[in-house]
Structures
1.
Amino acid sequence: MLRVVCLIIVSAALAGFSVGAHAADDWRQGDTSVERCAAEFNAIDNSVRTAGVQDAEYARIDGFPYFRIDRFLASYDFSKFKPAERTEWVDQLVANDQEARTIEIGNLPATERGELYARLGRDPLKVLSDCAETMRKYDHEHPQAHKALAQQAKVPVSDPVPQRPTDWTPQELTAMVSPEPVKDTGPLVTAFEPVATAPILASAAKVLVERSRTDALGIPLPDDDVADRLIAGFAPVWLVKGRPDDGLVIPAWDKGKAEGEEYQAAVYSRLSHVKWNGKVLLQISYFAWFNDDPLDGVIWRVTIGPDGRPVLYDTVRTDGSDYLVIIPGDKLKTAGRSVHIGDVPEGERVAVTVDQATRKVTHVGFWGGVTRGAYVLTEYDRLRRLYDHAGETRSLFGPSGAMTPDKAGSPRQWGHERLPDGRYFDAPDLYDGVKPAS
Protein backbone atom coordinates (compact mmCIF):
# COMPACT_ATOMS: atom_id res chain seq x y z
CA MET A 1 0.00 0.00 0.00
CA LEU A 2 2.86 2.37 0.84
CA ARG A 3 4.43 1.78 -2.57
CA VAL A 4 1.18 2.71 -4.34
CA VAL A 5 0.87 5.90 -2.30
CA CYS A 6 4.47 6.87 -3.11
CA LEU A 7 3.90 6.33 -6.82
CA ILE A 8 0.80 8.52 -6.70
CA ILE A 9 2.75 11.29 -4.97
CA VAL A 10 5.64 11.12 -7.42
CA SER A 11 3.27 11.00 -10.40
CA ALA A 12 1.51 14.10 -9.13
CA ALA A 13 4.81 15.89 -8.63
CA LEU A 14 5.87 15.08 -12.20
CA ALA A 15 2.51 15.83 -13.77
CA GLY A 16 3.45 19.38 -14.60
CA PHE A 17 6.53 18.20 -16.48
CA SER A 18 5.08 15.39 -18.60
CA VAL A 19 4.84 15.89 -22.33
CA GLY A 20 2.63 14.29 -24.91
CA ALA A 21 4.09 11.82 -27.36
CA HIS A 22 5.04 13.16 -30.76
CA ALA A 23 6.24 11.69 -34.02
CA ALA A 24 9.73 11.06 -32.68
CA ASP A 25 8.68 8.87 -29.75
CA ASP A 26 5.05 7.79 -30.22
CA TRP A 27 6.05 4.11 -30.08
CA ARG A 28 6.45 4.54 -26.33
CA GLN A 29 2.81 5.37 -25.63
CA GLY A 30 1.18 3.06 -23.13
CA ASP A 31 4.30 1.80 -21.35
CA THR A 32 4.21 3.27 -17.85
CA SER A 33 7.89 2.71 -17.06
CA VAL A 34 9.22 4.57 -20.10
CA GLU A 35 6.56 7.28 -19.80
CA ARG A 36 7.64 7.86 -16.20
CA CYS A 37 11.28 8.05 -17.28
CA ALA A 38 10.42 10.49 -20.05
CA ALA A 39 8.64 12.68 -17.48
CA GLU A 40 11.63 12.51 -15.12
CA PHE A 41 14.06 13.45 -17.87
CA ASN A 42 11.76 16.33 -18.77
CA ALA A 43 11.68 17.48 -15.15
CA ILE A 44 15.48 17.53 -15.07
CA ASP A 45 15.61 19.41 -18.37
CA ASN A 46 13.15 22.02 -17.14
CA SER A 47 15.21 22.67 -14.01
CA VAL A 48 18.43 22.91 -16.01
CA ARG A 49 16.87 25.18 -18.63
CA THR A 50 15.29 27.47 -16.03
CA ALA A 51 18.65 27.83 -14.27
CA GLY A 52 20.43 28.45 -17.58
CA VAL A 53 23.04 25.74 -17.02
CA GLN A 54 22.57 23.65 -20.19
CA ASP A 55 25.82 22.06 -21.35
CA ALA A 56 26.39 22.47 -25.10
CA GLU A 57 29.29 20.10 -25.71
CA TYR A 58 27.11 17.35 -27.20
CA ALA A 59 23.93 17.72 -29.24
CA ARG A 60 20.65 16.32 -27.94
CA ILE A 61 18.75 13.85 -30.11
CA ASP A 62 15.05 14.62 -30.46
CA GLY A 63 12.94 11.85 -28.94
CA PHE A 64 15.90 10.21 -27.15
CA PRO A 65 16.52 12.08 -23.88
CA TYR A 66 19.14 9.56 -22.75
CA PHE A 67 21.38 10.11 -25.81
CA ARG A 68 23.71 12.94 -26.86
CA ILE A 69 25.87 12.98 -29.94
CA ASP A 70 28.92 14.69 -31.41
CA ARG A 71 30.07 15.09 -35.00
CA PHE A 72 32.35 12.08 -34.91
CA LEU A 73 29.60 9.69 -33.82
CA ALA A 74 27.12 11.36 -36.18
CA SER A 75 29.43 10.56 -39.10
CA TYR A 76 28.49 6.85 -38.85
CA ASP A 77 25.50 5.41 -40.68
CA PHE A 78 23.50 3.84 -37.85
CA SER A 79 21.24 1.98 -40.28
CA LYS A 80 24.16 -0.07 -41.62
CA PHE A 81 25.62 -1.18 -38.28
CA LYS A 82 26.14 -4.79 -37.33
CA PRO A 83 24.76 -5.62 -33.84
CA ALA A 84 28.13 -5.26 -32.08
CA GLU A 85 28.81 -1.96 -33.83
CA ARG A 86 25.38 -0.65 -32.88
CA THR A 87 25.98 -1.56 -29.23
CA GLU A 88 29.32 0.28 -29.12
CA TRP A 89 27.86 3.33 -30.81
CA VAL A 90 24.85 3.47 -28.51
CA ASP A 91 27.12 3.00 -25.49
CA GLN A 92 28.90 6.22 -26.46
CA LEU A 93 25.65 8.14 -26.89
CA VAL A 94 24.54 7.07 -23.42
CA ALA A 95 27.92 7.93 -21.91
CA ASN A 96 27.82 11.40 -23.49
CA ASP A 97 24.40 12.12 -22.02
CA GLN A 98 25.35 10.82 -18.57
CA GLU A 99 28.43 13.04 -18.63
CA ALA A 100 26.57 16.15 -19.75
CA ARG A 101 23.62 15.69 -17.39
CA THR A 102 25.90 15.06 -14.42
CA ILE A 103 27.60 18.38 -15.15
CA GLU A 104 24.28 20.18 -15.62
CA ILE A 105 22.82 18.83 -12.38
CA GLY A 106 26.04 19.68 -10.54
CA ASN A 107 25.87 23.25 -11.85
CA LEU A 108 22.32 23.79 -10.60
CA PRO A 109 22.25 26.22 -7.68
CA ALA A 110 21.89 24.33 -4.41
CA THR A 111 18.29 25.45 -3.89
CA GLU A 112 17.18 24.35 -7.36
CA ARG A 113 19.04 21.07 -7.01
CA GLY A 114 17.21 20.37 -3.75
CA GLU A 115 13.87 21.24 -5.33
CA LEU A 116 14.58 18.87 -8.21
CA TYR A 117 15.44 16.08 -5.77
CA ALA A 118 12.14 16.64 -3.97
CA ARG A 119 10.20 16.79 -7.22
CA LEU A 120 11.64 13.49 -8.44
CA GLY A 121 11.47 11.76 -5.09
CA ARG A 122 14.97 10.36 -5.59
CA ASP A 123 18.51 11.34 -6.51
CA PRO A 124 18.55 12.85 -10.04
CA LEU A 125 21.79 10.97 -10.78
CA LYS A 126 19.98 7.72 -10.00
CA VAL A 127 17.32 8.72 -12.53
CA LEU A 128 20.01 9.08 -15.19
CA SER A 129 21.36 5.56 -14.80
CA ASP A 130 18.05 3.79 -14.20
CA CYS A 131 16.07 5.52 -16.93
CA ALA A 132 18.80 5.27 -19.55
CA GLU A 133 18.75 1.50 -19.07
CA THR A 134 14.95 1.32 -19.06
CA MET A 135 14.45 3.40 -22.19
CA ARG A 136 17.36 1.85 -24.05
CA LYS A 137 16.06 -1.69 -23.55
CA TYR A 138 12.57 -0.67 -24.57
CA ASP A 139 13.66 1.21 -27.69
CA HIS A 140 15.92 -1.66 -28.77
CA GLU A 141 12.84 -3.84 -29.27
CA HIS A 142 10.97 -1.29 -31.43
CA PRO A 143 11.84 -0.78 -35.11
CA GLN A 144 10.24 2.67 -34.99
CA ALA A 145 12.94 3.74 -32.54
CA HIS A 146 15.72 2.51 -34.83
CA LYS A 147 14.25 4.40 -37.77
CA ALA A 148 13.77 7.58 -35.76
CA LEU A 149 17.30 7.43 -34.35
CA ALA A 150 18.87 7.09 -37.80
CA GLN A 151 16.98 10.21 -38.88
CA GLN A 152 17.56 12.32 -35.76
CA ALA A 153 21.22 11.50 -34.95
CA LYS A 154 22.66 14.74 -36.31
CA VAL A 155 24.56 17.74 -34.98
CA PRO A 156 23.10 21.07 -36.10
CA VAL A 157 25.13 23.86 -37.67
CA SER A 158 24.27 26.61 -35.24
CA ASP A 159 27.44 28.63 -34.66
CA PRO A 160 28.54 31.81 -36.42
CA VAL A 161 31.63 31.92 -38.59
CA PRO A 162 34.30 33.91 -36.71
CA GLN A 163 34.50 37.57 -37.69
CA ARG A 164 38.13 38.05 -36.70
CA PRO A 165 40.26 37.96 -39.88
CA THR A 166 43.15 35.56 -40.19
CA ASP A 167 45.97 37.95 -40.93
CA TRP A 168 49.17 35.93 -41.22
CA THR A 169 51.21 37.43 -44.03
CA PRO A 170 53.22 35.18 -46.37
CA GLN A 171 56.34 36.48 -44.64
CA GLU A 172 54.97 35.51 -41.23
CA LEU A 173 54.15 32.02 -42.43
CA THR A 174 57.64 31.64 -43.86
CA ALA A 175 59.18 32.81 -40.58
CA MET A 176 56.97 30.49 -38.55
CA VAL A 177 59.28 27.51 -39.02
CA SER A 178 63.04 27.07 -39.12
CA PRO A 179 65.39 24.07 -39.36
CA GLU A 180 67.14 24.94 -36.11
CA PRO A 181 65.88 23.82 -32.68
CA VAL A 182 63.72 26.39 -30.90
CA LYS A 183 65.38 28.03 -27.90
CA ASP A 184 64.29 30.53 -25.29
CA THR A 185 65.83 33.63 -26.83
CA GLY A 186 65.43 36.43 -24.30
CA PRO A 187 63.71 38.07 -21.35
CA LEU A 188 60.49 38.73 -23.29
CA VAL A 189 59.91 35.03 -24.00
CA THR A 190 59.18 32.52 -21.23
CA ALA A 191 59.27 28.80 -21.95
CA PHE A 192 56.88 26.51 -20.05
CA GLU A 193 57.19 22.74 -20.07
CA PRO A 194 54.75 20.19 -18.56
CA VAL A 195 55.50 19.32 -14.94
CA ALA A 196 57.15 15.97 -14.20
CA THR A 197 56.54 14.37 -17.59
CA ALA A 198 58.67 13.01 -20.40
CA PRO A 199 58.06 12.85 -24.16
CA ILE A 200 56.68 9.54 -25.39
CA LEU A 201 58.38 7.33 -27.95
CA ALA A 202 56.45 6.50 -31.11
CA SER A 203 56.65 2.76 -30.46
CA ALA A 204 55.06 3.18 -27.02
CA ALA A 205 52.36 5.53 -28.33
CA LYS A 206 51.48 3.09 -31.11
CA VAL A 207 51.01 0.23 -28.64
CA LEU A 208 48.93 2.31 -26.24
CA VAL A 209 46.63 3.60 -28.97
CA GLU A 210 46.16 0.24 -30.70
CA ARG A 211 45.43 -1.59 -27.45
CA SER A 212 42.74 0.97 -26.63
CA ARG A 213 40.73 0.39 -29.82
CA THR A 214 37.21 -0.93 -29.39
CA ASP A 215 36.41 -4.36 -30.77
CA ALA A 216 33.65 -3.46 -33.22
CA LEU A 217 34.27 0.05 -34.54
CA GLY A 218 37.99 0.27 -33.82
CA ILE A 219 37.75 3.60 -32.01
CA PRO A 220 40.69 4.40 -29.68
CA LEU A 221 39.16 4.91 -26.22
CA PRO A 222 42.06 4.95 -23.76
CA ASP A 223 41.31 4.53 -20.08
CA ASP A 224 42.30 7.36 -17.74
CA ASP A 225 45.82 6.10 -17.03
CA VAL A 226 46.64 5.55 -20.70
CA ALA A 227 45.08 8.86 -21.68
CA ASP A 228 47.17 10.68 -19.06
CA ARG A 229 50.34 9.06 -20.39
CA LEU A 230 49.58 10.01 -23.98
CA ILE A 231 48.55 13.56 -23.06
CA ALA A 232 51.76 14.07 -21.07
CA GLY A 233 53.89 12.46 -23.75
CA PHE A 234 52.71 14.70 -26.60
CA ALA A 235 52.32 17.93 -24.60
CA PRO A 236 54.23 20.82 -26.19
CA VAL A 237 56.57 23.36 -24.70
CA TRP A 238 54.75 26.70 -24.73
CA LEU A 239 56.78 29.84 -25.36
CA VAL A 240 54.90 32.98 -24.33
CA LYS A 241 55.98 36.32 -25.74
CA GLY A 242 55.11 39.11 -23.33
CA ARG A 243 54.19 39.02 -19.66
CA PRO A 244 54.54 35.42 -18.43
CA ASP A 245 51.83 35.90 -15.77
CA ASP A 246 49.25 36.61 -18.48
CA GLY A 247 49.86 33.30 -20.22
CA LEU A 248 48.61 29.79 -19.37
CA VAL A 249 46.18 31.18 -16.81
CA ILE A 250 43.40 29.23 -15.06
CA PRO A 251 39.91 30.41 -16.10
CA ALA A 252 37.67 31.31 -13.17
CA TRP A 253 34.47 33.23 -12.46
CA ASP A 254 34.75 36.42 -10.44
CA LYS A 255 31.57 38.43 -9.80
CA GLY A 256 29.93 37.17 -12.96
CA LYS A 257 32.94 37.72 -15.22
CA ALA A 258 35.32 35.10 -16.59
CA GLU A 259 38.90 35.96 -15.73
CA GLY A 260 42.26 34.23 -15.53
CA GLU A 261 43.91 33.31 -12.25
CA GLU A 262 47.68 33.59 -12.38
CA TYR A 263 48.82 31.66 -9.31
CA GLN A 264 49.72 28.61 -11.39
CA ALA A 265 50.34 27.98 -15.09
CA ALA A 266 48.00 25.35 -16.48
CA VAL A 267 47.01 23.83 -19.81
CA TYR A 268 43.74 21.95 -20.37
CA SER A 269 43.52 18.84 -22.55
CA ARG A 270 40.95 16.52 -24.10
CA LEU A 271 40.85 13.61 -26.56
CA SER A 272 38.92 13.41 -29.82
CA HIS A 273 38.89 11.43 -33.06
CA VAL A 274 39.19 12.01 -36.78
CA LYS A 275 38.68 9.73 -39.77
CA TRP A 276 41.57 9.69 -42.21
CA ASN A 277 42.58 7.23 -44.91
CA GLY A 278 40.00 4.70 -43.74
CA LYS A 279 41.17 4.63 -40.13
CA VAL A 280 40.06 6.34 -36.94
CA LEU A 281 42.95 8.35 -35.48
CA LEU A 282 43.27 9.61 -31.91
CA GLN A 283 43.74 13.33 -31.34
CA ILE A 284 44.87 15.30 -28.31
CA SER A 285 43.95 18.98 -27.99
CA TYR A 286 45.73 21.34 -25.60
CA PHE A 287 44.01 24.56 -24.53
CA ALA A 288 46.16 27.49 -23.38
CA TRP A 289 44.32 30.47 -21.88
CA PHE A 290 45.49 34.08 -21.76
CA ASN A 291 44.27 37.08 -19.80
CA ASP A 292 42.25 39.49 -21.91
CA ASP A 293 38.85 41.14 -21.98
CA PRO A 294 37.30 38.73 -22.57
CA LEU A 295 39.46 35.79 -21.58
CA ASP A 296 40.97 34.23 -24.70
CA GLY A 297 42.65 31.00 -25.67
CA VAL A 298 44.66 29.05 -28.24
CA ILE A 299 44.22 25.35 -29.08
CA TRP A 300 47.12 23.15 -30.17
CA ARG A 301 46.17 19.69 -31.47
CA VAL A 302 48.19 16.57 -32.15
CA THR A 303 46.83 13.82 -34.42
CA ILE A 304 48.56 10.51 -33.75
CA GLY A 305 49.24 8.44 -36.86
CA PRO A 306 49.14 4.63 -37.18
CA ASP A 307 52.87 4.45 -36.43
CA GLY A 308 52.55 6.35 -33.15
CA ARG A 309 54.03 9.55 -34.57
CA PRO A 310 52.13 12.79 -35.10
CA VAL A 311 50.73 12.68 -38.63
CA LEU A 312 50.02 16.40 -38.41
CA TYR A 313 49.34 19.24 -36.00
CA ASP A 314 46.81 22.05 -36.22
CA THR A 315 45.99 25.12 -34.19
CA VAL A 316 43.08 27.53 -33.84
CA ARG A 317 41.87 30.32 -31.58
CA THR A 318 39.07 29.31 -29.23
CA ASP A 319 36.59 31.37 -31.29
CA GLY A 320 37.46 29.38 -34.44
CA SER A 321 39.69 31.99 -36.08
CA ASP A 322 43.38 31.72 -37.05
CA TYR A 323 43.16 28.09 -38.16
CA LEU A 324 46.46 26.63 -39.38
CA VAL A 325 47.69 23.14 -40.27
CA ILE A 326 51.29 22.25 -39.40
CA ILE A 327 52.64 19.26 -41.35
CA PRO A 328 55.72 17.40 -40.09
CA GLY A 329 58.11 16.24 -42.80
CA ASP A 330 57.46 16.50 -46.52
CA LYS A 331 55.17 13.55 -47.27
CA LEU A 332 51.82 15.37 -47.06
CA LYS A 333 50.26 18.51 -48.51
CA THR A 334 46.98 20.39 -48.22
CA ALA A 335 45.26 23.07 -50.25
CA GLY A 336 44.41 24.97 -47.08
CA ARG A 337 46.59 27.32 -45.07
CA SER A 338 49.54 25.32 -43.77
CA VAL A 339 53.25 25.29 -42.96
CA HIS A 340 55.75 22.42 -42.95
CA ILE A 341 58.16 21.64 -40.15
CA GLY A 342 60.78 18.93 -39.93
CA ASP A 343 60.05 15.64 -38.25
CA VAL A 344 60.31 16.07 -34.49
CA PRO A 345 63.19 13.87 -33.27
CA GLU A 346 62.38 10.99 -30.92
CA GLY A 347 62.39 12.12 -27.30
CA GLU A 348 61.91 15.83 -28.14
CA ARG A 349 58.89 18.07 -27.69
CA VAL A 350 57.29 20.47 -30.10
CA ALA A 351 57.70 24.12 -29.10
CA VAL A 352 54.75 26.43 -29.79
CA THR A 353 55.39 30.17 -29.57
CA VAL A 354 52.38 32.41 -28.87
CA ASP A 355 52.37 36.21 -28.82
CA GLN A 356 50.56 37.06 -25.59
CA ALA A 357 49.31 40.38 -26.99
CA THR A 358 47.79 39.06 -30.23
CA ARG A 359 47.14 35.42 -29.22
CA LYS A 360 48.71 34.33 -32.50
CA VAL A 361 50.99 31.34 -32.94
CA THR A 362 54.16 32.90 -34.34
CA HIS A 363 56.58 29.97 -34.49
CA VAL A 364 56.60 26.17 -34.34
CA GLY A 365 59.55 23.79 -34.14
CA PHE A 366 61.13 21.24 -31.85
CA TRP A 367 62.47 22.30 -28.48
CA GLY A 368 66.19 22.55 -27.86
CA GLY A 369 66.46 25.08 -25.07
CA VAL A 370 66.15 25.38 -21.31
CA THR A 371 62.78 26.17 -19.76
CA ARG A 372 62.28 28.72 -17.00
CA GLY A 373 58.68 27.83 -16.23
CA ALA A 374 56.42 24.82 -15.88
CA TYR A 375 52.73 24.15 -16.31
CA VAL A 376 50.35 21.52 -15.02
CA LEU A 377 48.13 19.47 -17.31
CA THR A 378 44.49 19.22 -16.34
CA GLU A 379 41.21 18.02 -17.84
CA TYR A 380 39.21 20.18 -20.21
CA ASP A 381 36.05 19.06 -18.42
CA ARG A 382 37.06 21.20 -15.45
CA LEU A 383 36.06 24.21 -17.54
CA ARG A 384 32.49 22.91 -17.50
CA ARG A 385 32.33 23.18 -13.68
CA LEU A 386 34.17 26.21 -12.36
CA TYR A 387 33.56 27.57 -8.87
CA ASP A 388 32.30 31.13 -8.58
CA HIS A 389 32.66 33.57 -5.71
CA ALA A 390 29.46 32.25 -4.08
CA GLY A 391 30.74 28.68 -3.84
CA GLU A 392 28.47 27.43 -6.63
CA THR A 393 29.73 25.97 -9.91
CA ARG A 394 29.03 27.03 -13.46
CA SER A 395 30.47 26.31 -16.87
CA LEU A 396 32.86 28.69 -18.58
CA PHE A 397 30.48 28.47 -21.54
CA GLY A 398 26.81 29.34 -21.85
CA PRO A 399 23.95 27.22 -23.23
CA SER A 400 24.77 28.29 -26.80
CA GLY A 401 28.39 27.12 -26.46
CA ALA A 402 29.81 30.67 -26.30
CA MET A 403 31.51 32.13 -23.24
CA THR A 404 30.05 35.58 -23.95
CA PRO A 405 27.28 35.12 -26.55
CA ASP A 406 26.84 38.80 -27.39
CA LYS A 407 30.55 39.57 -27.86
CA ALA A 408 32.42 38.97 -31.12
CA GLY A 409 35.50 36.81 -30.78
CA SER A 410 34.23 35.12 -27.63
CA PRO A 411 35.74 31.69 -26.91
CA ARG A 412 33.48 28.78 -27.73
CA GLN A 413 33.05 25.37 -26.14
CA TRP A 414 34.40 22.20 -27.72
CA GLY A 415 32.20 21.25 -30.67
CA HIS A 416 31.35 24.90 -31.38
CA GLU A 417 34.67 26.18 -32.79
CA ARG A 418 33.51 26.96 -36.32
CA LEU A 419 36.29 27.82 -38.77
CA PRO A 420 36.30 30.76 -41.21
CA ASP A 421 35.46 28.44 -44.13
CA GLY A 422 32.33 27.18 -42.34
CA ARG A 423 33.69 23.80 -41.25
CA TYR A 424 34.09 22.81 -37.61
CA PHE A 425 37.35 22.13 -35.79
CA ASP A 426 35.95 18.80 -34.53
CA ALA A 427 34.69 17.66 -37.96
CA PRO A 428 35.65 13.99 -38.52
CA ASP A 429 36.39 14.71 -42.19
CA LEU A 430 38.44 17.86 -41.57
CA TYR A 431 41.60 16.27 -43.02
CA ASP A 432 40.04 14.94 -46.22
CA GLY A 433 42.01 17.60 -48.10
CA VAL A 434 45.36 16.39 -46.73
CA LYS A 435 46.96 14.27 -49.45
CA PRO A 436 50.33 12.64 -50.22
CA ALA A 437 52.80 15.21 -51.51
CA SER A 438 53.95 13.09 -54.46
2.
Amino acid sequence: MFGLGVPELLIILVIILVIFGAGKLPKIGEGLGKGISNFKKSIKEKDEIGDDASQGEKTVPSPDHKK
Protein backbone atom coordinates (compact mmCIF):
# COMPACT_ATOMS: atom_id res chain seq x y z
CA MET A 1 0.00 0.00 0.00
CA PHE A 2 1.96 2.99 -1.32
CA GLY A 3 5.16 1.52 0.11
CA LEU A 4 4.06 2.29 3.68
CA GLY A 5 4.97 -0.21 6.34
CA VAL A 6 3.82 -0.59 9.92
CA PRO A 7 6.40 1.85 11.36
CA GLU A 8 5.40 4.59 8.92
CA LEU A 9 1.70 4.09 9.64
CA LEU A 10 2.36 4.26 13.40
CA ILE A 11 4.27 7.52 12.98
CA ILE A 12 1.40 8.97 10.94
CA LEU A 13 -1.10 7.86 13.61
CA VAL A 14 0.95 9.49 16.39
CA ILE A 15 1.17 12.75 14.42
CA ILE A 16 -2.61 12.71 13.88
CA LEU A 17 -3.16 12.08 17.61
CA VAL A 18 -0.93 15.02 18.50
CA ILE A 19 -2.63 17.38 16.04
CA PHE A 20 -6.28 16.49 16.65
CA GLY A 21 -6.25 14.85 20.09
CA ALA A 22 -7.81 11.55 21.08
CA GLY A 23 -11.23 13.08 21.74
CA LYS A 24 -11.82 14.27 18.19
CA LEU A 25 -10.61 11.14 16.37
CA PRO A 26 -13.99 9.33 16.54
CA LYS A 27 -15.72 12.37 15.07
CA ILE A 28 -13.14 12.64 12.30
CA GLY A 29 -13.50 8.92 11.53
CA GLU A 30 -17.27 9.20 11.47
CA GLY A 31 -17.11 12.17 9.11
CA LEU A 32 -14.72 10.35 6.78
CA GLY A 33 -16.94 7.27 6.79
CA LYS A 34 -20.05 9.28 5.94
CA GLY A 35 -18.18 11.14 3.21
CA ILE A 36 -16.97 7.93 1.58
CA SER A 37 -20.44 6.40 1.89
CA ASN A 38 -22.08 9.43 0.24
CA PHE A 39 -19.45 9.43 -2.50
CA LYS A 40 -20.12 5.75 -3.32
CA LYS A 41 -23.87 6.38 -3.24
CA SER A 42 -23.60 9.31 -5.64
CA ILE A 43 -21.51 7.26 -8.07
CA LYS A 44 -24.10 4.46 -8.04
CA GLU A 45 -26.93 6.94 -8.61
CA LYS A 46 -25.04 8.58 -11.45
CA ASP A 47 -24.45 5.19 -13.10
CA GLU A 48 -28.13 4.30 -12.74
CA ILE A 49 -29.16 7.64 -14.25
CA GLY A 50 -26.74 7.09 -17.13
CA ASP A 51 -28.10 3.59 -17.74
CA ASP A 52 -31.68 4.88 -17.74
CA ALA A 53 -30.83 7.63 -20.24
CA SER A 54 -29.09 5.23 -22.60
CA GLN A 55 -32.09 2.86 -22.59
CA GLY A 56 -34.69 5.58 -23.07
CA GLU A 57 -35.37 7.78 -26.04
CA LYS A 58 -32.41 9.58 -27.45
CA THR A 59 -32.75 13.31 -27.52
CA VAL A 60 -32.09 15.19 -30.70
CA PRO A 61 -30.58 18.65 -30.34
CA SER A 62 -32.74 21.48 -31.51
CA PRO A 63 -31.81 23.23 -34.77
CA ASP A 64 -30.95 26.32 -32.71
CA HIS A 65 -28.28 24.37 -30.81
CA LYS A 66 -24.82 25.17 -32.10
CA LYS A 67 -21.65 23.39 -31.04
3.
Amino acid sequence: MTKIKWFIGIWFVMICWAAAISFAGDSETPAKIPPIPTPGMVTMLDLGAHKCIPCKMMAPIITELQKEYAGRASIIFIDVWEHQDQTQRFGIRGIPTQIFYDKEGKEISRHMGFLDKKSIVATFESLNVPKENSK
Protein backbone atom coordinates (compact mmCIF):
# COMPACT_ATOMS: atom_id res chain seq x y z
CA MET A 1 0.00 0.00 0.00
CA THR A 2 2.89 2.39 0.75
CA LYS A 3 4.28 1.98 -2.78
CA ILE A 4 0.86 2.81 -4.24
CA LYS A 5 0.60 5.99 -2.12
CA TRP A 6 4.13 6.96 -3.15
CA PHE A 7 3.33 6.38 -6.82
CA ILE A 8 0.09 8.40 -6.59
CA GLY A 9 1.95 11.22 -4.83
CA ILE A 10 4.68 11.33 -7.48
CA TRP A 11 2.07 11.13 -10.24
CA PHE A 12 0.15 14.06 -8.73
CA VAL A 13 3.30 16.17 -8.44
CA MET A 14 4.21 15.43 -12.04
CA ILE A 15 0.71 16.44 -13.19
CA CYS A 16 1.17 19.76 -11.37
CA TRP A 17 4.56 20.13 -13.00
CA ALA A 18 3.11 19.48 -16.47
CA ALA A 19 0.43 22.07 -15.79
CA ALA A 20 3.18 24.51 -14.81
CA ILE A 21 4.64 24.29 -18.27
CA SER A 22 1.30 24.98 -19.95
CA PHE A 23 0.35 27.92 -17.69
CA ALA A 24 3.80 29.50 -17.43
CA GLY A 25 3.10 32.33 -19.82
CA ASP A 26 -0.21 33.61 -18.42
CA SER A 27 1.04 35.61 -15.43
CA GLU A 28 1.69 39.29 -15.03
CA THR A 29 5.05 40.82 -14.10
CA PRO A 30 6.73 38.46 -11.62
CA ALA A 31 7.56 39.70 -8.14
CA LYS A 32 11.21 40.35 -7.31
CA ILE A 33 12.98 37.46 -5.59
CA PRO A 34 14.69 38.31 -2.28
CA PRO A 35 18.14 36.95 -1.33
CA ILE A 36 17.90 33.24 -0.54
CA PRO A 37 18.65 32.13 2.08
CA THR A 38 17.99 35.24 4.14
CA PRO A 39 21.35 36.26 5.66
CA GLY A 40 21.58 35.41 9.36
CA MET A 41 18.15 33.79 9.61
CA VAL A 42 16.72 30.32 9.42
CA THR A 43 14.96 30.28 6.06
CA MET A 44 12.19 28.16 4.62
CA LEU A 45 11.87 28.43 0.87
CA ASP A 46 8.59 27.15 -0.58
CA LEU A 47 8.76 26.67 -4.35
CA GLY A 48 5.38 26.13 -5.95
CA ALA A 49 2.74 27.85 -8.03
CA HIS A 50 -0.41 29.79 -7.30
CA LYS A 51 -2.45 27.43 -9.52
CA CYS A 52 -1.06 24.12 -8.22
CA ILE A 53 -3.57 22.27 -5.97
CA PRO A 54 -1.17 21.18 -3.16
CA CYS A 55 0.48 24.62 -3.36
CA LYS A 56 -2.93 26.26 -2.87
CA MET A 57 -3.46 23.99 0.14
CA MET A 58 -0.17 25.20 1.62
CA ALA A 59 -0.75 28.92 0.93
CA PRO A 60 -2.74 29.69 4.12
CA ILE A 61 -0.20 27.73 6.18
CA ILE A 62 2.67 29.75 4.69
CA THR A 63 0.83 33.04 5.33
CA GLU A 64 0.08 32.04 8.91
CA LEU A 65 3.68 30.98 9.59
CA GLN A 66 5.06 34.19 8.05
CA LYS A 67 3.06 36.14 10.67
CA GLU A 68 3.84 33.79 13.56
CA TYR A 69 7.59 33.65 12.86
CA ALA A 70 8.11 37.27 11.74
CA GLY A 71 11.58 38.41 12.82
CA ARG A 72 12.63 34.90 13.87
CA ALA A 73 12.55 32.92 10.61
CA SER A 74 12.31 33.90 6.98
CA ILE A 75 9.58 32.15 5.00
CA ILE A 76 9.72 32.80 1.27
CA PHE A 77 7.40 31.61 -1.49
CA ILE A 78 8.47 31.57 -5.14
CA ASP A 79 6.00 30.86 -7.90
CA VAL A 80 8.08 28.76 -10.31
CA TRP A 81 5.55 29.30 -13.09
CA GLU A 82 6.40 33.01 -12.91
CA HIS A 83 10.11 32.40 -12.25
CA GLN A 84 10.98 29.37 -14.36
CA ASP A 85 14.72 29.96 -13.94
CA GLN A 86 14.39 29.15 -10.23
CA THR A 87 13.59 25.49 -10.90
CA GLN A 88 17.09 24.94 -12.21
CA ARG A 89 18.70 27.21 -9.61
CA PHE A 90 17.24 25.13 -6.77
CA GLY A 91 17.18 21.74 -8.52
CA ILE A 92 13.39 21.38 -8.38
CA ARG A 93 11.87 18.17 -9.75
CA GLY A 94 8.29 18.72 -8.62
CA ILE A 95 6.15 21.22 -6.77
CA PRO A 96 5.65 22.15 -4.09
CA THR A 97 9.19 21.76 -2.77
CA GLN A 98 10.31 23.18 0.57
CA ILE A 99 13.97 23.84 1.33
CA PHE A 100 15.14 24.69 4.85
CA TYR A 101 18.38 26.60 5.54
CA ASP A 102 20.10 27.19 8.88
CA LYS A 103 21.25 30.64 10.06
CA GLU A 104 24.57 30.17 8.27
CA GLY A 105 22.80 29.59 4.96
CA LYS A 106 23.49 25.85 4.74
CA GLU A 107 20.72 23.70 3.27
CA ILE A 108 19.51 21.44 6.08
CA SER A 109 16.57 19.61 4.55
CA ARG A 110 14.34 19.40 1.52
CA HIS A 111 10.82 18.04 1.06
CA MET A 112 8.72 17.58 -2.07
CA GLY A 113 4.91 17.68 -1.85
CA PHE A 114 2.42 19.11 0.61
CA LEU A 115 3.96 19.80 4.03
CA ASP A 116 1.70 20.41 7.01
CA LYS A 117 2.18 23.15 9.60
CA LYS A 118 3.17 20.71 12.35
CA SER A 119 6.07 19.39 10.25
CA ILE A 120 7.27 22.88 9.38
CA VAL A 121 7.14 23.96 13.03
CA ALA A 122 9.06 20.80 14.03
CA THR A 123 11.77 21.68 11.51
CA PHE A 124 11.98 25.21 12.90
CA GLU A 125 12.28 23.77 16.41
CA SER A 126 15.11 21.47 15.26
CA LEU A 127 16.86 24.60 13.93
CA ASN A 128 16.39 26.34 17.32
CA VAL A 129 13.93 28.96 16.11
CA PRO A 130 12.10 30.24 19.22
CA LYS A 131 8.36 29.55 19.30
CA GLU A 132 7.55 33.09 20.37
CA ASN A 133 9.26 36.46 20.21
CA SER A 134 11.16 37.17 23.41
CA LYS A 135 10.44 40.64 24.75
